[in-house]
Inverse folding.
C-alpha cells in the first residue's frame, strides 16, 4: 500500500519491514510491579534531578523522590511503595553507568496522586505547573522535559502544534494503541496542550498504515474545527520532526534551528495522554508504555510498566527470549540502543523493547563503497552520507563539518539502505560528536 | 553492574543502530544484474548461434582469473564472491561482435579487469566502466575484427550484414525498425535486441538497482538531440527512433552508463550525465567518422563524474538556496 500511496510525504526515506502485526492488535497490559525498581536520576535531557530521599526511607507510589536541578530538568516520583535500598551507580539503557535510586517493594501499594483538576476550566499557567509537577518528559524518545516545551521564549510566535502519531519506527505500536484505546482522552490532552501554548491549530499526523486510528480520530475530531487529522504516507523517517513539519505545514526547519523557530511545537501521542492523566486524574509519570516485540521474544505485547522495571523483568514477563535471539534493543530498530546488561531499567520515555533474530536484521558482508548513490537518494536532509562517513573515518573534521555533518539527525536511513553494508551513520555519529566538541572548545577559547 | 560473563554467555550483538538492513547487498545486486542480462545472452545465441557461448565463457573466465591473480599478487582478500568480475566479463562479451576471436576476447577481458578496475584499487574505485575500457582497447588494437559483422540466423535475405547505423551512414540504407526492436539485425552480441534489453533493464529499475534517472535522461536526451538534427534535414539525417533502438544505445543506457561506480551519485548529476552522453552520441553518429559512439560517449562522461558530483551537491534540507 505504502509504495503507491497518494498521501503527503517528504523526499527520500525508506520502507523497512514493519512487523507491526506482531503487536498492533494486542491491547495494553498492565505489568504487575516487580519486587525492586531502579530509578535513574537522569531520564530526561538536561541536568540529573536532585535526590530528596535517603537510604531506608519509606516511600509511596507517586511520592516525589527527586526534584529538578535547574530549568531543564525534571521531577521524579517513586513508581512503587517500598523502602529506599540504595542510591548509587547502576546499569542504564544508554550503556553508561548512571546515578540511580533503588527501591524495594514493601507492603501494600499505597498511591499518592495529585488532586484531579477540571480540564474545561483549568488555566494555561496551571496546566504548565501540573505538567511540571507530574514530571512529564517527551515520549517521542528524546525525553525533553515537556513543561519547558510548553513555555517557548516570548519572541517565538507559535502558530500550531503537531501531535506526532507517525510512529514510523518498525515494530512499535505503542502510540497506535493509545490512539485506538484512549481516543477521547487523547483529544482532551491535545486541547490542554493547545490551551497551555495559546494556539488555535492542532494537527495529528498519522501514517497511512494505521487506518483504524485515522478513522477513529477523524470521527472524534469531526465536530472540532481546531484539530485536524493529517494522513501521512508510510515511510521512514516520517516521524522525524523536520519531516513531519514539512509534510504537515510545508515549512522547513533550517539547520541548527528548532521547530519553534518556524512557529511549531511537536508533541508525541503519549505525551498528550500523560498530560491528560496528570490534569484529569492527578497521576504523575510513574509508568512507561512500551511495545515488546521482535521474533526473539516468546510473547510480544504492548505493556504498561512502572518506571524502573528492569529489562530482564520485562523480558521474563513476556515469556523470555527464544534460542535464536541475537540482539536486545531499547527503542525501535532504526534508532534504538542495543543492550548488554539486562539489569538496566526502563525509563519514562522508553517506547519499545525488541528482541531481534538474525533473519530480521539481514546483515550482509561489508564491501567497498560502490558509489551507487543509494544513501544520497534516501537521505531526507539532502546530505551526502558516503562522504560524511568517509571524512569522519579519515578524521577530516573540517571537511565533514563543511558538508554538514552536524545537521545529520542520525535516523540511520543511509546505513539501512547501503548495499555495501557500510556503517555510514555510525561513522557520521562519531564525526558529528567530534565536530561539535571542536566547535565548543573554540567557543570556550574565544 | 556489567557482568562480562553474562555478555559472553548470551552471545548478544551490540552494534549500534540501525539494527535492521535492506535485503539488498553488493553480492545480491551483482546477481540481479547478471540475471537481468540473461535475455540478452539468449538473444545473442538465438540470432548468432551457439558458438557465441564460447565468447561468454572465455570473457568471464579470463575476467575472473585476472582478478583472482591480481588479488593474489597484491596479497589482498579475494573478491570474486561479490560477483563483479563475473559481471564485467559478461558485459564485455555482450558488446563484442558475433564470432569474435576467442584470443582477442580473452585479451579484452584481461584489460577490462587489470586496467579498467584493479589498477585503480579494485571494486568501487575505478573511474571508467571496466567493460568499456576493455572494448575501447580492442577497438583500438583490432579495428577490422571489431567491425566485422555477421548476418543473423533469420536474416537470410539480407544483402548486407552491416549494422543498421553503419548501413545508414555508409550506404544510406534504412533498416526495418521492427527487426531492430526484436534484434534481427547486425550488431554486437547483446546489443541488437531492444526487447531483451528492456526486459532486463526494467527489471533492474523495479528492484531499485538501476537508478531510473540515468536511462531515462539518456532516452529523453537522444530523442531531443536526435529530433533537432533530424528536423534540420529529414532526408540526410536519421529518424530519432533509429538513434534510440540502433547500435548500443539501449544497452549502454540500462547496463553501462547506469553502472554504480562510474556514474554520479546525485539526482541532478545523473541527469547531466545522461543528457551529456546522449548529446555526444548524436554528435559522433551524425558528424563523426564512425557510425557508433555510445562507448566513447559513456567513457568521456565517466571522466566528468567526480566534477559533476562536486557541483551538483544537493542543498541541505532547510538551508537557504
Amino acid at each position: 500500500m505504502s509504495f503507491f500511496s497518494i498521501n503527503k510525504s517528504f523526499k527520500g526515506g525508506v520502507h523497512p519491514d514493519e512487523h507491526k502485526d506482531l503487536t498492533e492488535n494486542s491491547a495494553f497490559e498492565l505489568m504487575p510491579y516487580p519486587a525492586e525498581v531502579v530509578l535513574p536520576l537522569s531520564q530526561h535531557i538536561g541536568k540529573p534531578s536532585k535526590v530528596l530521599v535517603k537510604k531506608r526511607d519509606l516511600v509511596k507510589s507517586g511520592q516525589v523522590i527527586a526534584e529538578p536541578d535547574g530549568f531543564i530538568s525534571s521531577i521524579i516520583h517513586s513508581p512503587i511503595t517500598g523502602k529506599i535500598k540504595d542510591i548509587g551507580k547502576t546499569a542504564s539503557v544508554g550503556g553508561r553507568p548512571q546515578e540511580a535510586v533503588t527501591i524495594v517493594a514493601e507492603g501494600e501499594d499505597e498511591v499518592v496522586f495529585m488532586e484531579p483538576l477540571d480540564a474545561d476550566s483549568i488555566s494555561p499557567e496551571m496546566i504548565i505547573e501540573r505538567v511540571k509537577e507530574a514530571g512529564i518528559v517527551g515520549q517521542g524518545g528524546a525525553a525533553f522535559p515537556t513543561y519547558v516545551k510548553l513555555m517557548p521564549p516570548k519572541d517565538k510566535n507559535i502558530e500550531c502544534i503537531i501531535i506526532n502519531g507517525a510512529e514510523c519506527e518498525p515494530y512499535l505500536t505503542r502510540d497506535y494503541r493509545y490512539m485506538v484505546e484512549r481516543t477521547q482522552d487523547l483529544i482532551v490532552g491535545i486541547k490542554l496542550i493547545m490551551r497551555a501554548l495559546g494556539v488555535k491549530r492542532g494537527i495529528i499526523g498519522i501514517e497511512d498504515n494505521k487506518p483504524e486510528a485515522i478513522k477513529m480520530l477523524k470521527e472524534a475530531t469531526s465536530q472540532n474545527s481546531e484539530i485536524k487529522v493529517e494522513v501521512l504516507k508510510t515511510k521512514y523517517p516520517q516521524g522525524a520532526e523536520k519531516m513531519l513539519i514539512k509534510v504537515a505545514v510545508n515549512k522547513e526547519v533550517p539547520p541548527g534551528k528548532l521547530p519553534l523557530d518556524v512557529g511549531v511545537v511537536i508533541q508525541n501521542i503519549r505525551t498528550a495522554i500523560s498530560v491528560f492523566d496528570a490534569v484529569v486524574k492527578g497521576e504523575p509519570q510513574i509508568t512507561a508504555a512500551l511495545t515488546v516485540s521482535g521474533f526473539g521474544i516468546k510473547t510480544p505485547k504492548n505493556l504498561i510498566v512502572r518506571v524502573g522495571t528492569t529489562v530482564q523483568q520485562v523480558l521474563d514477563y513476556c515469556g523470555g527470549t527464544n534460542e535464536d535471539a541475537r540482539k536486545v534493543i531499547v527503542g525501535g530498530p532504526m534508532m534504538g540502543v542495543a543492550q548488554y546488561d539486562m539489569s538496566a531499567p526502563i525509563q519514562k520515555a522508553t517506547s519499545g523493547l525488541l528482541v531481534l533474530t538474525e533473519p530480521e536484521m539481514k546483515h550482509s558482508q561489508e564491501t567497498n563503497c560502490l558509489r551507487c548513490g543509494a544513501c544520497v537518494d534516501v537521505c531526507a536532509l539532502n546530505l551526502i552520507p558516503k562522504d560524511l562517513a568517509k571524512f569522519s573515518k579519515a578524521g577530516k573534521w573540517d571537511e565533514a563539518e563543511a558538508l554538514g555533518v552536524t545537521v545529520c539527525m542520525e535516523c540511520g536511513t543511509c546505513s539501512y539502505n547501503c548495499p555495501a553494508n557500510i556503517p555510514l551513520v555510525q561513522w557520521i555519529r562519531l564525526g558529528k560528536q567530534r565536530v561539535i566538541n571542536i566547535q565548543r572548545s573554540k567557543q570556550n577559547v574565544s | 553492574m556489567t557482568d562480562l560473563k553474562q555478555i559472553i554467555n548470551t552471545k548478544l550483538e551490540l552494534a549500534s543502530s540501525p539494527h535492521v538492513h535492506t535485503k539488498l547487498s553488493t553480492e545480491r545486486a551483482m546477481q540481479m544484474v547478471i540475471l537481468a542480462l540473461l535475455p540478452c545472452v539468449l538473444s545473442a545465441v538465438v540470432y548468432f548461434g551457439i558458438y557465441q557461448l564460447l565468447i561468454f565463457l572465455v570473457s568471464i573466465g579470463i575476467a575472473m582469473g585476472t582478478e583472482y591473480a591480481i588479488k593474489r599478487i597484491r596479497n589482498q582478500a579475494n573478491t570474486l564472491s561479490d560477483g563483479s568480475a563475473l559481471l564485467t566479463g559478461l558485459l564485455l562479451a555482450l558488446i563484442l561482435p558475433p564470432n569474435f576471436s576467442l584470443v582477442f576476447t580473452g585479451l579484452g577481458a584481461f584489460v577490462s579487469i587489470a586496467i579498467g578496475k584493479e589498477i585503480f584499487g579494485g571494486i568501487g574505485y575505478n573511474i571508467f566502466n571496466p567493460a568499456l575500457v576493455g572494448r575501447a582497447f580492442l577497438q583500438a588494437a583490432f579495428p577490422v575484427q571489431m567491425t566485422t559483422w555477421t548476418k543473423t540466423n533469420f536474416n537470410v535475405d539480407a544483402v548486407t550484414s552491416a549494422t543498421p547505423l553503419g548501413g545508414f551512414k555508409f550506404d544510406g540504407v534504412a533498416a526495418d525498425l521492427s527487426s531492430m526492436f526484436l534484434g534481427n539485425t547486425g550488431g554486437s552480441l547483446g546489443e541488437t535486441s531492444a526487447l531483451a534489453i528492456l526486459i532486463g533493464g526494467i527489471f533492474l529499475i523495479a528492484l531499485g538497482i538501476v537508478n531510473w534517472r540515468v536511462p531515462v535522461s539518456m532516452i529523453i536526451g537522444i530523442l531531443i538531440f536526435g529530433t533537432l538534427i533530424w528536423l534540420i534535414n529529414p532526408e540526410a539525417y536519421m529518424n530519432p527512433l533509429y538513434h534510440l533502438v540502433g547500435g548500443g544505445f539501449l544497452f549502454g543506457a540500462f547496463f553501462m552508463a547506469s553502472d554504480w561506480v562510474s556514474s554520479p551519485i546525485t539526482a541532478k548529476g545523473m541527469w547531466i550525465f545522461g543528457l551529456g552522453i546522449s548529446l555526444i552520441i548524436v554528435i559522433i553518429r551524425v558528424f563523426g567518422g564512425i557510425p557508433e559512439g555510445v562507448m566513447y560517449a559513456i567513457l568521456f562522461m565517466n571522466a566528468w563524474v567526480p566534477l559533476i558530483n562536486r557541483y551538483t551537491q544537493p542543498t541541505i534540507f532547510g538551508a537557504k538556496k
Chain B has 15 helices and no strands. The radius of gyration of chain B is 22 Å.
